[in-house]
Amino acid sequence: MSLTADDLIRFIRDELNVEDAMDAETELFSTGILDSVAMMNIIGFVEEKAGIEVRPADVTLENFDTAQRIVDYAREQA
């Protein structure tokens, strides 16, 4: 399966009940839109949707602060 920024934004809106305006480049964690509990949910979603295993050392703002960064990370791991 492939993961897109739209998939991730839809998940954040529908499953995490976030109504803030966001696009692929919106900073999710450094702005406080999402918290560490949301991060765990996103990691599970990414692992399932992209068919990868996210290593704890890879969970950084550099890899996970925007939907596009998450998608780019998942593609690099596939």
Automatic annotation (TrEMBL):
Domain Carrier: from-to ranges: 1-78
PROSITE patterns per record: CARRIER
Any Pfam family the entry gives: PP-binding
Superkingdom, taxonomy of origin: Bacteria
Native source organism of the sequence: Paracoccus spongiarum
Name of the protein: Acyl carrier protein
Stored InterPro entries: ACP-like_sf (IPR036736), PP-bd_ACP (IPR009081)
